[in-house]
Amino acid sequence: MPQTTHLLNSDHDGLAQAAALLRSGALVAFPTETVYGLGGNARDAAAVAGIYAAKGRPSFNPLIVHVADLDAAELIAVFNDQARKIAAAFWPGPLTMVLPLRPASGIADLVTAGLETVAIRIPAHPVARALLREFGGAVAAPSANPSGKISPTTAAHVMGGLSGKIAGVVDGGACPVGVESTIISLAPLTLLREGGLVREDLTAVLGPLADGGDAQKPNAPGQLTSHYAPAAQVRLNVVTPRPDEIWIGFGDCAGSPLSLSPRGDLVEAATRLFSVLREADALQKPIAFAPIPEIGLGRAINDRLRRAAAPRD
Ligand code: AMP
Ligand code: MG
């Protein structure tokens, strides 16, 4: 739905407006030291679905959660001594840590793509920090560009790509780093993506790092080696389920015991995708999904379902 995208100042009034928009479930782009992020309330599933829709992202890769301080981070992820040491050394800054998700975090499934880990960081940019403090919660934010386009480092870049698709952009000038954050996971310490914090600075404090899996392939920055995958067999585009299958509906599917969205709404279907997969999986029967239209958010939903249905060892 086209909307007016407000260009907001990074002064107190502008940040108060941006925080109010985030609280209302709207999307606001904001500067970080790496690139401009497209932010939505990480605890609001519909807002997070909106991030994918605005970017036209064809897959539900997990998003990075941005918070103002360590107290907010500890509400979301489980920190051990090593994680605290890394946080003390590099936060705020262009480093993202993948940590175990705290069960009562309230973070929407779509943020973690159903995983039990969460990617989290405290950005150093003063405008990002002020916005996060003013908002008070957790903001999920990928780069603020249409999927497949170059990451934006000015408010004008963001406007060029997303004007009409998001509620606002906070103008904080050009991003000083200009590349995405470095991503690591712990136990063992692994570099998942090269980024704004250089490897040498990391190893100087942490010692040697293992290289990650697919996540650090230059052509596939969003690819994960592990995705949430149900144990059960999954079939797609099923109009007539077999008697042994759990049929998961979309739209009008009389007799389906579970549905992504009885009214055929793709935003609702996206927000329910991972919880429905889990619910169906717990029944320990093969799963059959009704057809989902390959438009808008339907493309990302189908991408995830195709991965769930793909043969694996
Ligand atoms: P972007 O939002 O485009 O900066 O990309 C976020 C990156 O973080 C992607 O490469 C994701 O694969 C990675 N990521 C986010 N959450 C996780 C997670 N729980 N485990 C591993 N990688 C993650
Ligand atoms: Mg990006």
Structure description:
The chain is of the alpha/beta class. It folds into 2 domains: 6-211, DHBP synthase (Alpha-Beta Complex), CATH 3.90.870; 234-309, no CATH class. 31% of the residues lie in helices and 19% in strands. β2 (28-31) and β3 form a beta hairpin. The longest helix has 17 residues, at 266-282. Mean pLDDT is 91; it is low at 214-223. The structure holds adenosine monophosphate and magnesium ion. Magnesium ion (MG) binds next to loops.
Keywords for this entry:
313 residues; alpha/beta; DHBP synthase; eleven-stranded mixed beta sheet; four-stranded parallel beta sheet; globular; binds adenosine monophosphate; binds magnesium ion
The tally of strands reads 15
Please give the order of strands in the largest beta sheet.
1-8-2-3-7-4-6-5-9-10-11
CATH architecture of the largest domain: Alpha-Beta Complex
How many domains? The number is: 2
Structural class: alpha/beta
| Mean pLDDT across residues | 91
Considering the protein shown, what is the CATH homologous superfamily of the largest domain? DHBP synthase
Shape: globular
> What does the main sheet amount to?
11 strands, mixed
Strand residues, percent: 15-25%
Annotated CATH topology of the largest domain: DHBP synthase
> What is the string of helix and strand elements?
EHEEHEHHEHEHEHEEEHEEEEHEH
Bound molecules: adenosine monophosphate, magnesium ion
The DSSP helix count reads 10
